[in-house]
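Task: encode each sequence below as structure tokens.

Item 1
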Amino acid sequence: MRFFIWVLLMMILSSACKKTIIDGVSSANTSTDNSDSAANSWIYSTMKDYYLWSDSMPNINTTNLNTKPTDYFYTILNNYGNTDRFSWIDSSATNLTNQLNGLNTILGIKYNAFYADLSKNNVVFVIAYVLKGSAAEKAGLVRGDIIIKVDGQSITTSNYTNILQNQSLRIELGSLNNNIFTSTGTIIPITKTVLQTNPILKDTVIEWGGKRVGYLNYVQFLTSYDDSLKSIFTRFKKYKTNGIDELVLDLRYNGGGYVTSSDLLTNLIVKDLNAKIGNSGIFMNQKIYNTSYTAVLKKENQASNFITNFQFQAANLGNLNRVFILTSNNTASASELVINNLKPFMNVVLIGEHTYGKNVGSFTITDSKKRWDFGLQPITFKIANSLGESNYGTVNGFTPDYILLDNALPYKQLGDPGETYFNQALSLISGVAYKSFGVDQIVKLKKAQVQKTAIGDNLNMDKKDMFIEQKH
């Protein structure tokens, strides 16, 4: 009996000391343990490998591994909300991947919020844009429509950020007359649907002041629309044989996306592209990783892990000395990357508001062993242009050359030469503001904005990121 008890005791002790290594971090019995502690150990280990600020992470022994993983992730970030304003985690890797590829359940609108009256308690929404093929478009909503109530409920400063989050909604439209917002009595029932975002809202060419001006409004960098971008620039290049003389790129609603698509847009715009190709001394941008991941990538001995060179694009405009880019606080990440890429090689004229200020990017990390379904989107690299410049990573981002608020109502349609932002660019191009057929524009009213950032009807639409495919 004494021998049996001794053997049983040794078996218990052996079991208690057994550890399994999960991606470099030791955790008891984690080969079969699906606890929060095991998941958090994996999260910590992974972040140590790839997180740009891995040296600033707390020691794992000082963290609470029993915290809910979607909360734990934020406790190990570097000064979250300040230095790192960008990393996030999703409980579903599939949902995360869909978001990044523009696949969401949405109405398909972004809107600006304005105070309805001097009390600054009541709010109205003015639609900034409507996505093609969306439930909102099918319901007849367009840019400039005013939403005054949702489900019979007034919009206020307390609910304006989430009042459109329900799946099915009843939207009451309003109008602006004599500087007062009032209901039109029109109520539109609408239900969110799964939509693949078409990021190209508008492209057109306007002839004004002896110039052929190309205009493109693009809201997300999606690789699935790269060919569409090339087609647009082919039309710009061949417009009336000689092509456009000026380009206005409207990125005021573009929060980012794939770095490769951002690089493509740079290649389509940059002056003298052919002279840059094959010149080892001229490149587009360079990525900076943490120390450990840099060492891993250097072992591959591939410069492309760090340096992105210019690449031939038949649709490159080639001869432009400058580009006008329309910006706002929504202009972020891959959009700001285009600005930074182009600045060493041509005059980049910014019109609007300061950009978001995100000079860092990420790649998606999932558990290769399929133990957990979390999708991690931590910041994993910083990016600089060919001159080594990357100084826009603050809350002020890039400061526009011409400050302009998107607060003048009524809105005109995107690409309309009378639209506030586009009109400012045309006035700089020709020296006078565009006036269609010589008729003065409609008098606009400037209204106070609740916030300068346009809001999506699904919070996923408001994510700001630039990302690459993970190499390991």
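Item 2
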Amino acid sequence: MTTALTPVAPAAAPTAPIRSAGTTAPGLSDLPPPAGTAVFDRGESRVRLYCRTFPVVLRRAKGARLFAEDGRVFTDFFCGAGSLNYGHNNDGLKAALAAYVAADGVAHGLDMYTVAKREFLTAFRTHVLEPRGLEYTAQFPGPTGTDAVEAALKVARKATGRSGVIAFSGGFHGMSRGSLAVTGSGRARRAGGVHGQDPVTFVPFEDGPGGAFDSVGLIERLLDDPSSGVETPAAVIVEPVQMEGGVRPASAGWLRRLREATERRGILLICDEIQSGCGRTGDFFAFEESGIVPDVVTVSKSLSGYGLPMSLTLFRPELDVWEPGEHTGTFRGNQLAFVTATAAAGLWSDEVFHRSRAETARALAEFGAEVADREPAVRVRGRGAVLGIDLAASGGGARAAHVQRYAFDHGLIVELAGREDEVLKVMPPLTIDPAELADGIGVLRAALLNRI
């Protein structure tokens, strides 16, 4: 557990006005860049995003707090896009990492045998897989989530001998070529040069901006009709909770139907748990609520627990059809990440940690219910320690940008999601101090319920 800090009052709001409705690029701040950032503008690509959304130079971080160079303090409801579920510089993880580095532990090991990797595999099996009755083989495909998805798609195609994949509208799986092919976002696909020739069939998710949809029924009809034009695919890839898609949880019944439909037809089911996993949406994996067992699972982001790059592709042992060296990568053996991931896995046998994450989830659910009760036009969705506040019918992306800007001005970092950045995606650390959580919720309450 991260040591709790004494709550710090958020900084006073800057005098710059909150952006007006209709401003383009909702969510991007119109504040001038802070002092000391000229080197970034001169030397770094325009592709950078979050420094524009949150224009502040950060110096240090602890728990749920970010400390800026200019003295401001922010509560972090963003958590590195889900990479810091255990908070910044978690004491237990930091101690393990510092001891390993001080002892000259191996820092880079490709896929060689190392003590650090052995200890991680043992801890992950002991604290995560075995208590859930899961028997998976682990592949370390590379440092990022998109690497895990690429490996999942490749192993599915190799194991089945088929090339097609079914994916869902609103899904997000990464920014490399194969991952983009199964990502619904038009903006991301266009930037990556991904077009309709990729062997991917998109169907609506169970719930989206257009309302509920029987997507499993559509998949079954397409696959059972010899004239549908859709051949039996290698896999179906799904996020049990669409996070970038606007915090849209799949229901347990829908996931069970999807599992049954794929199993009957010999299609592999890939669950992308890169952002929904590691405890963010309930138990360690979001799919656990439904009782299903996917064939392949991708895990990354908070897997290392410390913000260090690390990803896993998990699959049933009989799907391990790789030849040695068929899928490789220089940084697939991040030994420092193995060390912190081992410590993070141990938290899953820690009752204090479980009480903390349960309290965080309860507080978010209560706040979501309060918002929904006070303003019925706002749609609130969530599970576990993530809350999606959908303003599509109550000001849309422009209002979401207002709230995000108000939050920043009052010492809170929160991200936007959804098709038009119309959803506030609230993700505090699972280990957040209750007073810090109340501070952040208070800022959102002021922005939302006072109609900022």
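Check on item 2: The two ends are 35 Å apart (CA to CA). Residues 446 and 452 are 8 Å apart (CA to CA).
End of task.
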